[in-house]
Design goal:
Chains A, B: InterPro entries: Homeodomain-like_sf, HTH-type_TetR-like_transc_reg, HTH_TetR, Tet_transcr_reg_TetR-rel_C_sf, TetR_C_16. 2 copies of one chain form a homodimer. By secondary structure, chain A is mainly alpha-helical. Chain A folds into 2 domains: 54 residues, Homeodomain-like (Arc Repressor Mutant, subunit A); 121 residues, Tetracycline Repressor, domain 2, CATH 1.10.357. Chain A has 11 helices and no strands.
């Protein structure tokens, strides 16, 4: 379930962290769509080619700026491989594995705790929709992917709040398998069940 | 849907607000169970009888300290009257009516925005479970009321985050009736459907 950690790359740690700081500030204030590799490079006082060299695409840069301990795009692979009809359970398995792991979920918890601040809200909204909900909805080939994935997101983020943040019992200490078994059908209904219109 | 607002009561506004401040501090640091009318009275430098006179029971005092614009216990009346088999839709109707109203939901939004701070977490946890989830689960006479209502709560709080706080589309601008129609079956499943064990 754990994606490989990014190793520390050689050289120029100051330049790297200047780029990451600029990227985080840009994504937080202007959003993913309103931020370019070029604008991040300018803010960090480096050439855009250097940003690409260190971090890859704009998406890669965004993931790096979030300072997660797993790449959400890689974490979603088993969900996509499961296919639309099994994605509910696969998604719950990934979700519980990530959030029940104190180390892996640490940066995610920090993000959720900052939910009251507009910059963090922007990062959460973009991170959640751009990195997780959007690509998974598309890859699964479901109809109305944005709407269905927003419903899925509403259940998952609520589970984050109740089980992990507020620690409301009996959900807080429920065995992971029981959490999966309880919520997988709900997610599956959102993904492939009938939707009222 | 809107419960009557509490009118301003005559006399001693300083004493009233001293009691409310002490109550809020007590509930936030010691929780609902760990706070007594007596301890609030002592912190405010008044007699316990005066607290009862101004605010009623400890539950009433807790509701007053939350400074909501509706009494959650009254707001839940239509849900209880609907009965267990119809409670999913009734609960969604109350939820959307309250949260779609900017004025009524203002203090609730403030509470959710403070979710990162432990005192507010304590108020949210107790307010949610003591005032809403606990009594409704009991009144509906469902089995495993704490577990079922925690599942219900996980979906509702997630909807708060996605629709109202982060405003993720298309959920943020979805018509209220469609939100009710989409989520009522999910809540109903949590309330009266089969639960894995």
């Amino acid at each position: 379930m754990t994606a490989p950690r990014r190793g520390r790359r050689p050289g120029a740690p100051d330049t790297r962290s200047a780029i990451l700081d600029a990227a985080r500030a840009g994504f937080a204030t202007s959003g993913f769509a309103g931020t370019s590799v070029r604008s991040v490079a300018a803010a960090a006082g480096v050439d855009a080619a250097l940003v690409h060299h260190y971090f890859g695409t704009k998406e890669d840069l965004f993931v790096a700026a979030l300072e997660l301990r797993l790449d959400p795009r890689e974490a979603m692979t088993p969900v996509v491989l499961a296919g639309a009809d099994q994605a509910g359970e696969a998604l719950m398995r990934v979700f519980v594995a990530v959030w029940d792991d104190p180390e892996v979920s640490l940066p995610l918890r920090a993000l959720v705790r900052g939910m009251s601040e507009p910059p963090t809200q922007q990062l959460m909204r973009d991170g959640f929709t751009q990195m997780v909900l959007g690509p998974v909805g598309l890859a699964l080939g479901i109809d109305q992917p944005e709407r269905r994935m927003a419903h899925v997101g509403s259940q998952l983020i609520g589970l984050v709040v109740i089980r992990y943040l507020l620690a409301v019992e009996p959900l807080a200490s429920m065995p992971p398998d029981l959490v999966v078994a309880t919520y997988a059908p709900v997610l599956q209904g959102f993904l492939t069940g009938p939707l009222p219109s």
